[in-house]
Amino acid sequence: MLRVMVIFGGRSGEHEVSLASARAVMDALESSGCYEVQPVGITREGRWLSGGDPLGELAGSLTEAALSPPRQAPQSREAGALTRTAEKLPSGLGEADVVFPVLHGPDGEDGTVQGLLELAGVPYVGSGVLASATGMDKVTMKKVFAFHGLPQVEWVGLTHTEWEADRDGWMRNIQNTTGYPCFVKPSNMGSSIGIGRADDPEELAEALDRAAEHDRRLIVEAGVDAREVEVSVLGNESPEVSVPGEIVVGTGGFYDYEAKYTAGASEILAPAEIPESVSGEMERVARAAYRSIDAAGFARVDFFLERGTDRLLLNEINTIPGFTPTSVYASLWDASGLPYQKLLDRLIELALERHAEKHGP
User: Fold this and answer.
1) Is the CA virtual torsion 242, 243, 244, 248 positive or negative?
2) CATH number of the domain at 2-124, out of 3.40.30.10, 3.30.450.40, 3.40.50.20, 3.40.190.10?
3) Model's pTM, two decimal places?
């Protein structure tokens, strides 16, 4: 019986999303009877919880407040220093056959935990350090996509320091490059946390200031009148691509945090009703994007499909997407004929295969 360490929680603003994904993953692994599950939680302060019921402990610490976009936990000297080893490393790591990081956002999806697992020499599900870091930082990701000639919307990347040093200059730069409407995002954040739409200079300045509360690196993207279509990718050197699914937001707004995690606010239509030629191009670009960052295991690739022209634009790649049975990633594989339990089995197989190729059996 394989011993699978599932790591969840973390210091990012996507802490709650991670707990939901981890609960689904652990329930499915345990119900299969093929795995011994070892849960490991990370608190919002960065402490590792390796004993007892980490998931219950972390879930119990959540407030009962109404759903609202969370903020990244502040970086403190104590939380950032590797001085309290017992709280900073998971016990039993060397006894795990494979690790399944179910961590979303900074300090988990960005290559930090992947680097720890590489140092420990244990197999783990998903992309390595390079792909994780590239996929997390939207500015770097888009530079890689541009190098490979993949189609994207116009965009501008900047830092909070640069923005504060020359607000008028950056406003002109952004208006000349992306125009209005445009969307402002923290470069290193998922689940649409910190995203804002701007239709004029005043809203642009406000959106940049809000995004800077979540990250020092910012990105502004041109708005397009488009359908949002996504595919799930699975594999290492020879990735497979699921059927495409279209995200439909019931409120008529954009796909922000509330739309993603409020029941009934959005739905996914899979397979998406798109021309076969577009579907084929989407599959090609998804594989190219996956390989361009050297992704492994799994990822979700998001697209814009411009209304009226069917022009396909690559939006982003997510190396650890939400992972409940009803999340987009798993839903698209289910629509493609691969149910949740078998998807988990395949991901663990891919992790072991990649580790063996890199380090030997």
Assistant:
1) negative
2) 3.40.50.20
3) 0.87
